[in-house]
Design goal:
five-stranded parallel sheet, alpha/beta, binds ribose-5-phosphate, Rossmann fold, single chain, 310 residues, seven-stranded mixed sheet, 2 domains
Length: 310
């Protein structure tokens, strides 16, 4: 088995290699003067089971192209099997034709990855589970819930905790965490009037006096999260903490979170944390390296991946 990485998240790729007790494969991924991507794999991969770790996070288009070109380079170098390990799968939010004349970008990206030559995909907390079906190659969608629930148990007193979904679409994910923690569930009924804006309407469930744990897959602008936190506090919650898998945190999101009433935002390292994230007083990052490393190990050994979540 060999593991290579693009430039999106080398820290996570190194941590995964550390878990697997393997050196990170040698590859050059750099730019020509005009910013085209230049890739050169610097070790033999003939007949190897190759894993390429690359999140399609900001700058999304560059990181996606790096992934596609790395797959192409490794396919042309006669690897036996190529798995695209995409801890954060970008372009997932246009996953259906939500209005007339709109694309299904998630399907287009799935086609590109398959066409480039990937044999398998390994990803984590897809925005929508059905995106797995956009790939006609085996696709494993891991869940961060076991890592998140372990962290909750280590850091919070569960007696007074209520798990909250920040919108109706996230109820399945929130229910999974509530079940693991044996806690009650509430829902924030969010209405988004315009793209990029979010508006909180209603809290379904009695959160009075509760320590609320918001759970979501993505925090991008931070709007959904901060508005949900405000709504919960207005409805009598004692405190609000958030557990969110993918810290996209674009633009002024970090400032929004640090100046919000959130006690803590816990994210994972599927997207490499910026220095602003690292120095934020109420943002903490937990690692997915052992979960992804173990899934890679099991894929390579042809063992069950789903049993990781039993
Ligand atoms: C929406 O369906 C997602 O699960 C997230 O709630 C959303 O992408 C978060 O975006 P933002 O932080 O910009 O409100």
């Amino acid at each position: 088995m060999k593991v290579f990485a693009g430039n999106s998240n080398r820290l996570l790729a190194e941590a995964i290699c550390n878990y697997l007790n393997l050196p990170l494969g040698k590859a050059t991924v750099r730019r020509f003067a005009d910013q085209e991507i230049f890739v050169e794999i610097q070790e033999n991969v003939r007949g190897e089971d190759v894993f390429i770790v690359q999140s399609t996070s900001f700058p999304t288009n560059d990181h996606l192209m790096e992934l596609l070109i790395m797959i192409d380079a490794i396919r042309r170098s006669s690897a036996r099997r190529i798995t695209a390990v995409i801890p954060y799968f970008g372009y997932a939010r246009q996953d259906r034709k939500a209005g007339p004349r709109t694309p299904i970008s998630a399907k287009l990206v799935a086609n590109l990855i398959t066409e480039a030559g990937a044999d398998r995909v390994l990803t984590l907390d897809l925005h929508a589970g059905q995106i797995q079906g956009f790939f006609d190659i085996p696709t494993d969608n891991l869940y961060a819930v076991p890592i998140l629930s372990r962290d909750v148990k280590e850091n919070y007193d569960l007696k007074n905790v209520m798990v909250v979904s920040p919108d109706v679409g996230g109820v399945v994910r929130a229910r999974a965490l509530a079940k693991r923690l044996d806690c009650q569930l509430a829902i924030v009924d969010k209405r988004r009037e315009r793209a990029g804006e979010s508006e909180v309407m209603n809290v379904i469930g009695d959160v009075t006096g509760k320590d609320c744990l918001l759970i979501d897959d993505i925090v991008d602008s931070g709007g959904t999260l901060c508005n949900a936190a405000e709504a919960l506090l207005k409805n009598g919650a004692t405190s609000v903490t958030a557990y969110i898998t993918h810290g996209v945190l674009s633009g002024g999101a970090v400032a929004r979170v640090t100046s919000s009433k959130l006690k803590e935002l816990v994210i994972t390292d599927t997207i490499q944390p910026t220095t602003a994230v690292q120095s934020a007083h109420n943002i903490r990052v937990i690692s997915t390296s052992s979960l992804i490393g173990e899934a890679i190990n099991r894929t390579s050994q042809e063992e069950s991946v789903s049993s990781l979540f039993d």
